[in-house]
Amino acid sequence: MKIIDGKAHRYVKFLVYGCQMNVADAERMAGQLAAIGYERTEDTDIADLLIINTCAVRETAEDKVYGKIGEIKKLKRENPQLIFGITGCMAQKESDKLIKRAPHIDFVLGTGQVHELTKVVQEIQQERGHVVNTALDAKVAPAIAEGSPIAREGSLSAWVPIMYGCNNFCTYCIVPYVRGRERSRRPEDVVKEVEQAVAQGYKEVTLLGQNVNSYGKDHKLATFAELLKMVDKVEGIKRVRFMTSHPKDLSDEVIDAIAEGEHLCEHIHLPVQYGSNHLLKAMNRVYTVESYRELVKKIRAKLPHASLTTDLIVGFPGETEDDFAQMLDFLKEIRYDSAYTFIYSKRSGTPAAEMENQVDDAVKKERLNALMAVQNQISLEINQSLQDKVMEVMVEGPSKNDDSVWTGHTCTNKIVLFNHQDEQPGDFIQVKITHPQTWVLKGIRV
Ligand code: SAH
Ligand code: SF4
Ligand code: F3S
User: Fold this and answer.
1) Which run of H or E residues covers position 398?
2) Using one digit for the tens of pLDDT, what is the confidence trace for 408-442?
3) Ligand 2 centroid to residue 167 C-alpha, Å
4) C-alpha distances in Å from residue 264, one per residue of 125, 250, 303, 308
5) Can you list the domains of the chain with their CATH numbers?
6) Coiled coil where (predicted)?
7) What is the pLDDT of residue 30?
8) Cα(436) to centroid of ligand 3, in Å?
9) What are 86's strand-pairing partners?
């Protein structure tokens, strides 16, 4: 707490791990906390409330959180008034086990209880007891709490969740267990949130969901394609992005909507996860190499300039040399603009954790390196094909290492670096690509 001009100020610091959904959730938590007087800070030393919004998707994500929990013990000793809470997917997964292991945690709030946050914090302010609330009925979709205030982090790009949870149960994945069943927000609530973001000066929105293609299958008020069209029409919006698309149900209507849309970005994140039917089946991904290939053909026929990105997992149980060779061939055939590559991580409670033929760690690492080498070469070649092309860039601000070099993204989600003159964040400029590289495109303003 700080006293400024005779008034007490309370601060909350968030540590956010995991995916954009967690970033969006933290913005909603910060919005609620503002209503009871907490300002968001990046400075741990002045925080009265510290929240780790956790991820459980891989063991490494959990290890990082355990490390942080350990560090915070010292902070709590120095400042016993500090309230320390764990939220997010690991809170959901581990529940009261977290407090048993680390009693300096004051509260653990599950993914379905985000709206309870202010109540819990006020309870602890008064009584200083432990609170654990991670109730989540695996069979029932919890209600969506609408109307909660949002304290967004950036100033140009807004995250807008359109649905929560996942029904797909890919055999490696913990998400359906910690996020519950799919539920879609009402289209009017999504549109209203986008309108509000635009009114606050945001230029770009990213619609979020574990599988946006199944948006609306629960309430039947609008399909994802229909929602895209509604958001595209919001007055003043410049760019609309979305993730993630599950390949099993990306519809023709969605592809057409992007082709016809005015502000819908031509970038599709379409995680394939693997490139052999044997493993796709074991992963319960429901599509085949052949059907995925057809889908990509369709996308490229209608959206020839679209960028295509993916997620890949190596070392899934039962992966053979032959599977891996097929995977590399598939990458070379599809030619993604870029890929997030992961080593399979055993998640207890998921079917894959019980499978035989778990792959040796050394083999997993070797395959990851081989995979990344192939993908990096492809990313470089695709970027090199953009040499001398003029691309529209939304200006974001100075790059990390050099204030005179500014950065922005193309609509296809490529990072562009250029020498700063008088551009301001939020400007849309034309940049000619002069030095394409694997991860970034360097260019000059024209
Ligand atoms: N709903 C999204 C992804 C959510 S998790 C989708 O279906 O595409 C993000 C990525 O983490 C996944 O695409 C997958 O590649 C990876 N992932 C999930 N569980 C994993 C595990 N147990 N080990 C390694 N990677 C995993
Ligand atoms: Fe996990 Fe599969 Fe759901 Fe994505 S679609 S969140 S990978 S279960
Ligand atoms: Fe992690 Fe939960 Fe997202 S497990 S990837 S933070 S949905």
Assistant:
1) strand 390-398
2) 999 999 999 999 999 999 999 999 999 999 999 99
3) 8
4) 45, 15, 12, 14
5) 2-133 (3.40.50.12160), 157-384 (3.80.30.20), 390-445 (2.40.50)
6) none
7) 95
8) 32
9) 52, 108
